[in-house]
Each structure stands twice: as structure tokens, then as C-alpha cells.
Design brief:
Length: about 160
């Protein structure tokens, strides 16, 4: 009888731990400073890339040999637009604010898509030198995608919403 009672108490304790989750984090307000940037790399030390990177994404830039540097016909350059940071984590239920700042690129058209594919933040525009605040509640578990359609498909950021 005592053994059965002990087993029952252990089972209840285990179920309680599972039901309460593991991290104990509670939803709060979270702000991420996200910059819209462009990074570039140039060389004349290796052959030019094939295919032309600008055919792979509107987020990739390419200046071919002869186009990049008139004084050096072998030199070429690649570039890409990105969000920095591009990977963020929140607790489900957090009120998330992106404080965006446009550093590179004259124009970006962006949206936020939820884990279920629904639009969480409608498309909005940003220009170089602008700061903009975008706020939404991360009320779904999983990956939110922050997408720039001007430089798709490579200018994206990922916000992972985890269980508290
Ligand atoms: Cu962009």
C-alpha cells in the first residue's frame, strides 16, 4: 500500500513538471535593434563567379570584371543586403518591437509572416536614414519570418518563438 502511494506521488510530480514547462520564462516586452545593411567583397585573385550572382536573388549585387574597376579588368565585386541581427528568439506571448534603421539600400519593402503563414505585419516601406518601430505579439510558437520583398529571397530574418 505504501509503495503504491509513493508511485502515485512520483507520477503526479512528473506530470506537474511536464505541465509547467521547463524554462519558467514569462511573456514580456522585447525590443530588437535591427539594421538594414549591405556587405560587399571584391577581388581579382580568383575567376569571376558563374552564374552571375545577381540572377540568384534580387538581394545579391554583382559588378563583373571590367565593370567594377576600369583600371583593373580582372577585378569584380559581389554584395548582399541583410538584416542585422538576422536570428532572434522570444518567448511565446512576448510583445516584440523591431526598431529598424535603414543604413544601406535606397528602398526596402518589408513584411512579417507568422509560423502559420499568416501576415502578422502588413507590408511597409523604409528608406535609407529612416528609423521605424514595428510591434506585434508573438502569440504563435515557431518561426516568424521578417522578409524584404525588394531584395528577396535572401534578405530575411528569423524570429523563433519558444514556449515559456
Ligand atoms: Cu531590402
Amino acid at each position: 500500500m505504501k509503495l503504491r502511494r509513493s508511485i502515485a506521488l512520483i507520477a503526479v510530480g512528473a506530470l506537474t513538471l511536464v505541465a509547467c514547462g521547463t524554462s519558467g520564462a514569462t511573456p514580456s516586452d522585447v525590443t530588437f535593434d535591427v539594421e538594414l545593411i549591405e556587405i560587399k567583397g571584391a577581388t581579382d585573385g580568383i575567376p569571376a563567379p558563374e552564374p552571375d550572382p545577381s540572377t540568384l536573388s534580387s538581394g545579391y549585387g554583382y559588378k563583373a570584371p571590367g565593370e567594377y574597376d576600369a583600371d583593373n579588368p580582372d577585378k569584380w565585386q559581389v554584395a548582399t543586403y541583410m538584416f542585422s541581427p538576422a536570428a532572434m528568439t522570444v518567448v511565446e506571448g512576448d510583445e516584440v518591437t523591431f526598431r529598424l534603421f535603414g543604413i544601406n539600400g535606397d528602398h526596402h519593402a518589408m513584411t512579417v509572416v507568422g509560423p502559420d503563414g499568416s501576415t502578422v505585419v502588413n507590408s511597409f516601406d523604409m528608406s535609407r536614414g529612416q528609423e521605424k518601430l514595428v510591434t506585434f505579439t508573438a502569440d504563435q510558437l515557431g518561426h516568424y519570418k521578417f522578409i524584404c520583398s525588394t531584395h528577396a529571397p535572401t534578405m530575411t530574418a528569423d524570429l523563433l518563438s519558444v514556449s515559456g
